[in-house]
Write a structure and sequence with these properties.
globular; disordered N terminus; Phosphoribosyl-aminoimidazole Synthetase, Chain A, domain 2; alpha+beta; seven-stranded mixed β-sheet; homodimer; 60s Ribosomal Protein L30, Chain: A; 11 helices
Chain lengths: 355, 355
């Protein structure tokens, strides 16, 4: 039987992982030119940015959560790529307070150059992660294409009155983050062949971890969540800014408390950055300020996350017990900031400060 | 202002449209190696072939219909490509008896070589078609990629007791087809630059047409539908065979009654075929027989359709009135065959005969 050399998936990609994502600015300029009809009343949340989950109300007790994401390999092992892509896609359902029920795969792979066994492993990783989430992979579409890409379309269910919006962050709230930052720098180091997957195991395990927090929380803590979002491609700063703007609040972060993977700062200092580090900085331009002088630490807050943690804006009364309930499953969970009243209450835009 | 030469979308694609789809045989061999957990009871229909719509039961009156499809351009005009991709993806929901409620876009395009205005037109076509279906485009994901690809993930609703399965075709049923065949040969001619989009306008209009038949039918006709499927990439023979097998019946087609686009046979005779013509023939090998000697006509029944019509297996009592109700919206609608009892009642496989 022929022996093939081990295939490193990241080396099959020309455009790198999340870097192949179209920048938010460009996408917005395209979407601004498309005429959308007014949303019917049952569309509770649409995705103007084409990036977040949407909510469709079926009746007074049931709404659908809809989300879709796919990308090129950011890790080398097919099974891990499948697990991460699934956890990443499922995350948006959790970030809205929903539970995923079905998923469909989006798969593009080069029939001629990638063996079927790679695809089997990739799908197995996705099936296992979707099953662990209590959902079912019920279908999908597969094409022959030049570059491997994989992701999921996910449908979840949520009670329409219990949707975790990103627009209800309140003055005095405490900000909690459930996973470390740095997957962008870690996977950039992997792609440059500076490290192996084993060297960044903390990052891989974190990306595979489902953002299912509800089952770990008491009722009091759950009802103390005012706003939630998952931290993904736009980095902590980008997603926090979206939440601060939507809530018309200012967020104050305690930079030293923000969790990061063990080698994230080392890789940033060595310059293992992506295009998204720059576009995420541009995206938040003029709205983010820093109380320290350390450009490398700034990069951490712009670092694009794949399957990043949840950023929660919670009532101060429940913050401590919530961290206690989450920490066994999400060991990096930490209080990372607080919510101030927006300095410009008549402006729709919020602002961020990292002390 | 700079003037760009008109861009013909089909000329931007290396692998052709539906030809980029992975053949059913290859896909099945991959999926057979993935370990899927048993479906929970609420998954009423999964998609073992990764190609059809799945059904997830929410409660006794509501189930979700889930489907996903995307492909490279098969026509030149961006607006038409968006309309066709949307009608094609929505079709699977109609084929299950459902009504679509939300859609999300799957978009990959070369930022460097395709102007944003092309993407705006494409999305506008999709938004218009999704809106015409009474559904909302609520999000999606966009990446920078070498070859333009577009499609939708669609969620619909259906009453769990009124799902149009493809497994309930009954002896004595009449087979009705609602659109002509030949989109594979038409778009192959377009890709070879043998014709313009204007020359195949009947095919373009048909592919843009939503397969929404329920609102045109009386209650008696609706309840006379025993089985339904939409005719897409596997051609009439492939999809009919799936239905015949699932129903353990034999289908007898009246070849001369099967509708076709005006120039479909001309293009087939001139050899404008795709890889799918061959793989569709292989897929049905040994299960399809012909009562005539005309290899070109055989190719028509293997011709891969994009946004093809519905194949309905209906009670003989309602067939005539059903055709009458559909013909104003779907002018090619015709009785194309009948259902016989399977010759091999103990075999799971059905068979097709084209007289």
């Amino acid at each position: 039987m022929l022996k093939f050399p081990p295939l490193r998936l990241t080396q099959t990609v020309l455009k790198g992982g999340c870097a192949a994502k179209v920048a938010a600015k460009e996408l917005r300029s395209i979407l601004a030119q498309v005429r959308f009809p007014p949303n019917p009343a049952d569309v509770m949340v649409d995705a103007g940015s084409f990036d977040d989950a949407a909510i469709f109300k079926i009746n007074s007790t049931t709404a659908l959560v809809q989300t879709l994401d796919f990308f090129t390999p950011i890790v080398d092992t097919p099974r891990n790529f499948g697990r991460i892509a699934a956890a990443n896609a499922l995350s948006d359902v959790y970030a809205m307070g929903g539970r995923p029920v079905t998923a469909m795969s989006i798969l593009a792979f080069p029939l001629g150059t990638i063996q079927n066994s790679v695809v089997v492993e990739l799908l197995q990783g996705a099936v296992d992660t979707v099953s662990a989430a209590g959902a079912s992979l019920v279908g999908g579409h597969t094409i022959d294409d030049d570059t491997l890409k994989f992701g999921l379309s996910v449908t979840g269910l949520v009670h329409p009155e219990h949707v975790w919006s990103n627009a209800n962050s309140r003055e005095g709230d405490v900000l909690i983050l459930t996973k470390p930052l740095g997957t962008g720098a870690l996977t950039a180091a992997l792609k440059r062949e500076e490290v192996s997957e084993e060297d960044i195991r903390d990052g891989i395990e974190s990306m595979c971890l489902l953002n299912e927090i509800a089952s770990h929380l008491g009722e009091r803590e759950k009802s103390g969540i005012h706003a939630a979002t998952d931290v993904t491609g736009f980095g902590l700063a980008g997603h926090a800014l979206n939440m601060a703007r939507a809530s018309a609040q200012s967020f104050h972060f305690y930079s030293s408390e923000i969790p990061r993977f063990s080698r994230a700062m080392e890789f940033i200092r060595r310059g293992f950055l992506t295009k998204a580090h720059r576009t995420n900085r541009e995206y938040t331009q003029g709205k983010v300020s820093f109380g320290f002088k350390d450009p490398d630490l700034e990069e951490l807050f712009f670092d694009p996350q794949t399957s990043g943690g949840l950023l929660l804006s919670v009532s101060a009364e429940v913050a401590e017990t919530m961290v206690g309930q989450l920490i066994s499953r999400f060991p990096a969970t930490a209080v990372v900031g607080k919510v101030l009243k927006s300095n410009a209450p008549h402006s729709e835009a919020g602002a961020l400060f990292f002390e």
